[in-house]
Amino acid sequence: MSYVDEVYDLVVAKNPAQPEFHQAVKEVLESLRVVIEANEEQYRKDALLERLVTPERQLLFRVPWVDDKGQVQVNNGFRVQFNSAIGPYKGGLRLHPSVNLGIIKFLGFEQIFKNSLTGLPIGGGKGGSDFDPKGKSDREVMAFCQSFMTELHKYIGADTDVPAGDIGTGGREIGYMYGQYKRLTGLYEGVLTGKGLTYGGSLARTEATGYGLLYLTEEMLKCNGKDIAGKTVAISGSGNVAIYAAQKAQQLGAKVVTVSDSTGWVYDPEGIDVDLLKEVKEVKRARLTEYAAARKSAEYHEKKNGEHGVWNVKCDVALPCATQNELDLEDAKALVANGCFAVAEGANMPTTMEATEYLQANGVLFCPGKAANAGGVATSALEMSQNSERLSWTFEEVDSKLKSIMVNIFHNLDDAAKKYGMAGNYVAGANIAGFLKVAEAMTAQGIV
Ligand code: NDP
Ligand code: 2IT
User: Fold this and answer.
1) CA of 305 to the centre of ligand 2 (A)
2) Quick one: which atom of ligand 1 is closest to the CA of 237?
3) What is the dihedral of CA 141, 142, 146, 152, to 10 degrees?
4) Which of 46, 141, 165, 318, by CA, is between 20 and 30 Å from 68?
């Protein structure tokens, strides 16, 4: 049996009931096959792949907090410190009721390669909790965040592990967590990114993932003889990534016609009103029904099981920006049938493996999340740099660095795909380019 297959089987056997983690590992290992086979003897001897798929450390902890009725609630807390070969662990904290160890491991594993692709010195990690911030008062969110950090602070630090936002964790949550970290440790340091601008945050971090997604998409289209200007774009999600993806798409001259949340989606043929969307989602924390109620041109659709939602809408470019496995084979077929020619993942692993293969087989340009959404963590690394030098850069400075990072990422994965005989396969290119740097650093540092 090949080394790749052996290691994949090992992952399934040793990590039962973690389908998302298996999926992420499979996608990476499959596209590394050529690279692994060329160095199989050395990698096997060093157990390089076994080490790569095994987190350096996994922290699981209890998070008790008191709700507004005086009732004690208990959530599960997680931090997976996956790989520190190229820098301190770096990756977000997801707060969503669906969070479990397998989800955090899939996200942490992806983060290793994503962070490597940014070209910046950051290792891979991820964390979170099954706490649901939705419908909670600010006081309840604060109580949770303080309890979560009371345990987490023992394991993180500006030079060891630097968490940030993800689903359910935005500026409010980062603020409460930072306050508690500072109180417990007495340290005013860049231990979290995505901080507010008054206490060490970076300009453009809020916009970075969505903007970066569009910078990369623009470059991918350009290198394939196409232009984002004038194109129709379908976006899923209506959170941090989706909002700023929509904003930048419009600035680049595209028309964004959809957004969604977990209960429904909006089709707005005149183009999404981003200011209204921001008001509904960032200020009121409300449902998309409020967006539709305030906008004549918008159609609201309740989410139904088995329905294709936003992917049924005719578009040129699709940008899934909500969550994992939200774009399946049927969705991919609908996109191709409607003439969509490019898909770039704003979310982490939003496209199933079957859907990815179908899109690629049908000539759709496909850029995986670990490259396309790397602008968020890249700008987090820029926030760390600013914190270290006790300075803050202008919006333009951060944004122009972000843009050049995204353009570089695209060319790195394009070149890697070509070099290994898979021109145009950006999934393989991203995995190979991300892997090679980490593998070299792991090898150089000996068996640790
Ligand atoms: P937010 O919490 O700001 O927004 C998430 C959006 O996705 C919301 O519209 C939410 O709807 C929807 N959503 C979440 N979970 C589900 C679900 N299970 N089913 C349907 N819809 C869902 O998160 P972000 O925008 O930050 O994150 C979106 C994606 O981007 C995630 O995959 C994240 O890992 C990834 N990402 C985020 C980065 C960042 O910097 N924030 C960086 C790189 C990747 P609702 O509000 O109804 O739950
Ligand atoms: O998935 C991701 O890359 C993020 N949620 C951002 C991580 C970060 O450290 O900024």
Assistant:
1) 29
2) 9
3) 40
4) 165
Domain segments of the chain: what residues? 3-187, 206-367
Q: Between β-strands 57-66 and 232-236, what pairing exists: parallel, antiparallel or unpaired?
A: unpaired
Closest Cα to residue 382, out of 158, 241, 197, 203? Answer: 203
> For the segment 199-236, what is each residue's pLDDT rounded down to a tens digit?
999 999 999 999 999 999 999 999 999 999 999 999 99
264 ligand 1 Cβ < 6 A:
no
Largest CA distance in the chain: 64
CA distance from start to end of the chain: 26
> Is the confidence at residue 396, as pLDDT, over 80?
yes
Distance CA 424, CA 147 (A): 47
- Fold designation for 206-367: Rossmann fold (3.40.50)
- Per-residue confidence at 307, pLDDT binned at 50, 70, 90? confident
Determine if ligand 2 sits within 6 Å of the CB of residue 206. Answer: no
Q: What is the percentage of the chain residues whose pLDDT exceeds 70?
A: 100
Alpha-carbon radius of gyration of the chain: 21
Distance 376 CA to ligand 2 centre (A): 6
Domain 3-187: homologous superfamily in CATH: Leucine Dehydrogenase, chain A, domain 1 (3.40.50.10860)
145-195 tens-digit pLDDT: 999 999 999 999 999 999 999 999 999 999 999 999 999 999 999 999 999
136 is catalytic: no
* Atom 3 of ligand 2, nearest CA residue: 377
Q: How far apart are CA 437 and CA 440, in angstroms?
A: 5
Give distance in angstroms: CA of 396 to centre of ligand 2.
21
- Other CB atoms within a 10 A radius of the CB of residue 285 amount to 12
**Among 90, 114, 126, 248, the one annotated catalytic:** 126
Distance (Å) from CA 324 to ligand 1 centroid? 9
